[in-house]
Structures are given as C-alpha cells and as structure tokens.
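Quick one:
INPUT:
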C-alpha cells in the first residue's frame, strides 16, 4: 500500500477547497512548512496569514475573521493548539460558537525528532469539553481530505488532528466520510477494537493476527470523537454475554 501523512492531505485539500471557495482563509503560527499550509500559501498568498509564534493571538484573529463571513482554517501543532491556546479556543471560538476550523498537526506521540515537548495526547480530552466543538481524526489520505471538506461544510467550530508520520492509504475513492458516523471496517463476534488516526492501519493488521488465532474481532474506525457514534460502539445483541 502507498502511504502519506495526513498533514500533507490537509494541505492538499486546502488548495482544492480554496479553488472552489473564495471565503476560505488560512492562518498559521510560523509552522507552514510543517503543517503543510505552505501549499495553500503558494496557491493563494493573499489568503494566507502567518501570525508568528503567537498561537493565542492566531485563534483570536481567526475568531474575528469568522465574524466577517470568512471561513478560517487555523493551523499549528496539537500541543500548541490544545495546550497553549486552550483558553482562547474555549472562551472565544467555543463560547461564541464561531465558524473556525482548527487543524492541529503532530498529534499523539509520533512526532519524530520533535520530541516529548511536542507530543500531545490530551487534545481530544480537552477539545471534547467545549460545547458544540466537533472533534475528528482521520486515518488516511482519502479520509483526511474528505474530513477537511466536511469541516468546511459544517457551520460551527471544528477541531481536527492530523499526523506527522505517514500512514497506509487503505480506503478507496468509494469511501464516504460523514461527521459523527463511525466506519465498521470488519465485523466480529469475540470483541471489538476501536481506533482512529494512524492506529487504524495498525489495528487492521492486529485483526489479521487475531483471525489466525481464531479470534474474530470487530474493527471500528472512530474518526469522529465528538459527537460519538454510540450505536457503532454497542456490541450486537447476540453478544450480550460476551
């Protein structure tokens, strides 16, 4: 299978969206090369704003732009979004239910040479606490691009986590992403594995190993963390005694 980091998918999707919608603007915190918003900057330099190493200010600027009818995509590392700028996201974007799209790259622990200071596992937990905030994490290139489009079409605040590390592209073009809808990749009766992001490809391999041992597991790609697809999580009635 071919591989691609979903942060690259994010940058590519922004360019395609930018061609279709003139109301899209992109903000970055001096990390455009890492978050891949440099692709949008090259295509639409007048609609890309580097706010410098000032993440709190960047999200307030994004909030202001959204009140003028624009759709801002604000990008930095997950650690600096959920961590450093949480108050601004909570009190300005969340409280005002503003139409701002937060794109956080380098989420989780797979951040390569950037080290522990740049790892962020708390972002899902923090962003879920904000009323009205959609929280999502794509598993591969195809899902990531569709997720960016879905975020644009959703009216309200959205948080998306993209990976630094490349992941296998296992979806095909027939796949249709929907906010709040989990993907049942594999059904099973002996248990369930729920994953998202780059761990979905690993979970697929784990299911194959378990299958060889006679253990039939259900595999759920939970790309939307909030709102959670509770129906997909529930085991079928026939397994009530599991």
């Amino acid at each position: 299978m071919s591989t691609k980091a979903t942060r690259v998918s994010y940058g590519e999707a922004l360019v395609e969206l930018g061609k279709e919608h003139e109301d899209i603007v992109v903000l970055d915190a001096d990390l455009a090369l890492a978050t891949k918003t440099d692709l949008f900057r090259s295509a639409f330099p007048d609609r890309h704003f580097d706010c410098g190493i000032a993440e709190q200010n960047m999200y307030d600027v994004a909030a202001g732009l959204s009140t003028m009818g624009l759709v801002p995509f604000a990008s930095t590392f997950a650690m600096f979004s959920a961590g450093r700028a949480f108050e601004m996201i909570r009190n300005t974007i969340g409280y005002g239910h503003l139409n701002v799209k937060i794109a956080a790259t380098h989420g989780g622990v797979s951040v390569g040479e950037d080290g522990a200071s740049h790892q962020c596992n708390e972002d899902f937990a923090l962003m879920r606490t904000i009323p009205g905030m959609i929280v999502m994490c794509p598993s591969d290139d195809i899902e990531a691009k569709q997720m960016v489009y879905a975020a644009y079409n959703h009216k309200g605040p959205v948080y998306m986590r993209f990976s630094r590390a490349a992941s296998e592209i296992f979806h095909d073009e027939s796949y249709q992403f929907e906010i709040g809808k989990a993907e049942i990749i594999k059904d099973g009766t002996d248990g369930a594995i729920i994953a998202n992001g780059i761990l979905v490809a690993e979970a697929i391999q784990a299911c194959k190993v378990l299958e060889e041992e006679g253990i039939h597991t259900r595999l759920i790609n939970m790309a939307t963390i909030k709102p959670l697809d509770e129906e997909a999580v529930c085991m079928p009635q026939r397994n009530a005694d599991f």
